[in-house]
Amino acid sequence: MALKGIKVLELAGLAPGPFCGMILADFGASVIRVDKIGPQTFEDCLGHGKRSIALNLKSEKGINVFKKLSNQSDVIIDTYRRGVMEKLKIGPKELMATNKRLIYARLTGYGQNGSYADMAGHDINYLGLSGLLSLFGRYNEKPIPPANLAADFGGGGLMCAFGIILALYERTKSNAGQVVDASMVEGSAYLGSWLFRSQKTGIWENPRGKNILDTGSHFYDTYETKDKRYMCVGALEPQFYEIFLEKLGLSSDEVTQYNNFEENRRRITEIFKTKTQAEWCAIFDGTDACVTPVLSLKDATLHAHNKQRQTFTTVRDDIIPNPSPRLSRTPGISHGTHKNPQAGEDTIQILTELKFQSDEIDDLLSNGIAYQVQRTSKL
Q1: How far apart are CA 46 and CA 336, in angstroms?
Q2: Mean model confidence pLDDT for the chain
Q3: Nearest CA to 52 among 372, 376, 375?
Q4: Is 305 noted as a catalytic residue in this protein?
Q5: pLDDT tens, 348-358?
Q6: Is 122 a catalytic residue?
Q7: Phi/psi zone of residue 108: left (φ > 0), alpha (ψ -120 to 50 degrees), beta?
Q8: Catalytic residue, candidates 74, 78, 152, 214
Q9: How far, in Å, CA of 358 to CA of 297, rounded?
């Protein structure tokens, strides 16, 4: 696998950090999640394939364990606000002094400097500050965030993983680590580069929801079917639009592409409601009309194309997308079949690998420096 041999420490956090660690793990890295001791305020559903050690990082002994782990690691994923790790004396300056090859990735909402750097926030805040949220939504309606996908996972976890890969590659030449400052505001903005750079092309000349690509046109929208499902229409190019109309039983004389958008949308809406989603798929599949079904998560796993491509793995009731992109020699492997570790599930094993003796491990556990979850046998 592409990242085999790379050791990662992931400080437990919410969605963006675990997603970043998941990407690295899926492509071969060994990832240890460093959990806090005590009740967990979140459930990490992206921890499959990782191991967990629970440490009290407010104690000197806990910090020493963390430093030992750091000295044997290639990457640290830090999702805390700026200054938190410095107060504990395990920030990049301290850790990179003893491990000069360390890649220290800092994944935060607002970055390591600036007037917002110390503020709390979530995906919707970062997307709003990036400028992109202003573009999403129907006409005459308020902006609508695309769940917490864009900033948390696109601009956050994915961009952070990209930065880590870049730093690891550069290290092959310099033999030196570096700090990755991954801001979800900046990552989201960068993810939206095309949206920023296309503003003067005429695509975005109208208010939100009135442009070609933001549901303003009848040929780039979704339509309800007879069975209360939906179809996606993306017939942008004239040649594709002609096929789209033909399959609907219309002609360009009846429904012109760049005139009467709302009247055209009304007519097309009525037509789509005359057949079920499956019936429309039978009509449009295999054509260049750019029309496909809107699938539920479950239905996506059952679709013929996704099954042929092995896009998903299903484990009991869990649907898990397989790693992407695909590498011809060293593809990623989903850890979806592995269980999600409980906080502290692998503490003793990891301490043993760090050459702690059994009496030292007992001391760390009994004094609340480290925690090993009790495994229950299933008879």
Answers
A1: 9
A2: 95
A3: 372
A4: no
A5: 999 999 999 99
A6: yes
A7: beta
A8: 152
A9: 47
